[in-house]
Amino acid sequence: MSRVTVSVGARIHAGFCNLSLARERLYGGVGFGLEQPRVTLSAEPADGVHAPDGIFETYARQACEILDVPGADVDVKERLPRHVGLGSGTQTALSTYTAIARAHDQRPTPREHAPALGRGGRSGVGVATFERGGFILDAGQPSDRFTEAVPQRGDWQVPPVSVRHELPERWRVVLVIPDATPGLEGETEEQSMRSAVRDAESALASEISALVVDQLLPSAAKGNLEAFGTALATYGRLNGSWYTTGQDGAYSDPSGRIIERLADEDAVAGAGQSSWGPAVWILTDKERAAQIRTRLETSDDSGSTPAVRSTELAPRGHTVTENG
Question: Is the pTM of this model over 0.85?
Fold first, then answer.
């Protein structure tokens, strides 16, 4: 037994392929892993659970119950910002679980145990990027799941990965987190998702499916930055049509204004909102990332300056280090 450190980057969730009950499968998440920002934490065996605060203690207790171990001491070195659209819940839960399992000399199975942690229900992108990083399209869920009520915790399987690609090393994401109201969570998010599913039209699902098959997946496979960025931005905008009631438009505010500011920028291959936002992703390359950051690190019309950073895309999933 030893102290084990686990680290993984955030993830971008560009949206779902289908919310229409007219089709056999719902959801089908699309997204990709980032190198930064990260959650990094360590764990070692202990009598009882010792963790710095709420969310880490909650996941540590759940992990100890799942693994049937007496406890763990969890130390957090880096945290992901919460409720901004970067997948902090899933990446934190799986990192905590994996560190505790390895500290107790057990083999972690994140995909198997994610449902017991309450993660990986509608979308499998977070679990998949934790496992292996890269660009992900998951297979979604049968259309009778997660529609009228959330199944009992653990009474589902994480959607399997349909497509995975490692995107080119020179690509970059400029990540913008505006000073804004956090994205939807909890019961409010559940109500918004159920409402979107009830109101979804099959015609939009067909349009999104055609875009994915004809443009998004081929450009990902070829590593064509401009084509991929254009397709992913269109995918995100069409996805926003599912949620116009829940977020008062295709994007939340001020994420939409940031995306509009970048519409005519030559350095931008594509831009969109991650999950419920307010985080905005901007796809570019290594040479042009600094240009975009300079453009964004100035006040917008509201007088606020968002947090801006450039990051590589994650070619792999989490890392594990044993500290002896």
Answer: yes
